[in-house]
Amino acid sequence: MKVTVYNCRDFDEKELFVKYGKEMGIELVLCPDAPDKDNAALARGGECIDIITSKMPEELLKVFADYGVKYITTRTIGYDHIDIKAAHALGMTVANAPYGPCGVADYTVMMILMTIRKMKRILERSNIQDYTLKGIQGRELKDLTVGVIGTGRIGRTVLKDLSGFGCRLLAHDLYENEEVKSMGVSYVTLEEMWKQADVITLHAPLTDDNYHMINGEAIEKMKDGVMIINTARGGLIDSQALIRGIENGKIGGAGLDVVENEFGLYYYDHKSDILDNRELSILRGFPNVTVSHHMAFYTDDCVDTVVRDSLLGCKYFTEGAENPWEVK
Predict the structure, then answer these.
(1) d(Cα 244, Cα 250) in Å, to the nearest integer?
(2) Which of 62, 170, 284, 290 has its CA 20 to 30 A from that of 121?
(3) Catalytic, out of 294, 308, 319, 326
């Protein structure tokens, strides 16, 4: 069998692809670039392609389908970058490659702590040998209420991690989880979450229903000085509303590993480019906002897992075996 791998990184993924491809008897075509109409022909002669967060709209999916591709796996948990409906209409199967929850959960707790302790300002001052204290007085987690939106594997791990800090914990999810309740965590409506939480952290998948979940109306209902953490998907937050909330002081700080319209920006070197994302530039400029480039997932364990399981999913597909990662 043949698998064409796009966005293959030389410095961390390539060696693993070679290793697992050999173990599974898979012929690999490794391409460092994102999938597009020009390099789609690399997939000819195989049924499977392996991608990361590149946009896969209907017109590009049709190009791959015409080359005989029937299976697309993404080396990510999320798959909102793929037009699932169009893929299924073309007879293509889509799958993801979930990694363990600990990496993103660890990163989330780090972001929370950095935000409530104003670490961005502290580091900036230290870099210029400004050791004054005014303006960098922080808060302690034990005195705060933290709301977790989304109690899947990552959200539940965040709750477990935060339980040791002594903070009050709230949760919101369309489907309440018994494990979360057993921790003594209360499920609340979003309205209650906005009213009560000092820190709100997002761990929900992006859907049509929750797009811009945090918007101007929601922010108005939140506590003054609320801090918002997002290590999930940028589209959960209306960037313009977030900016207004920070500028008028309603939002006390934010830790953002994801932002809206990040496709095509992250994982590339743009240091000499003018970026077509005004909101990102504004958010990065605030002293109380920490922005990282969609890398909360990025650990040794994650890279190994997604490379292995993305290939394993291709193998299951070609063999007609049950595939636990298929997106229905």
Answers:
(1) 9
(2) 170
(3) 294
Tell me whether residue 294 is one of the annotated catalytic residues: yes
Distance CA 236, CA 219 (A): 13
Catalytic site residue 27?
Answer: no
| Those residues with Cβ within 8 angstroms of residue 326's Cβ, 6 or more apart along the chain or in another chain | 93, 94, 95, 313
**Contact predicate 67/47, CB 8 Å:** no
Residues in the chain: 328
For 18, phi then psi, to 5°, come to: -60, -45
Name the CATH superfamily, with its identifier, for domain 102-249+259-291. Answer: NAD(P)-binding Rossmann-like Domain (3.40.50.720)
Tokens of 107: 């990163």
Whole-angstrom Cα distance, residue 210 to residue 206? Answer: 6
Which superfamily does 2-96+303-327 belong to?
NAD(P)-binding Rossmann-like Domain (3.40.50.720)
- Please identify which of the residues 233, 244, 279, 284 carries the catalytic annotation: 233
pLDDT digits over 186-233, tens only?
999 999 999 999 999 999 999 999 999 999 999 999 999 999 999 999
Neighbours of 122 (CB within 10 A): 17
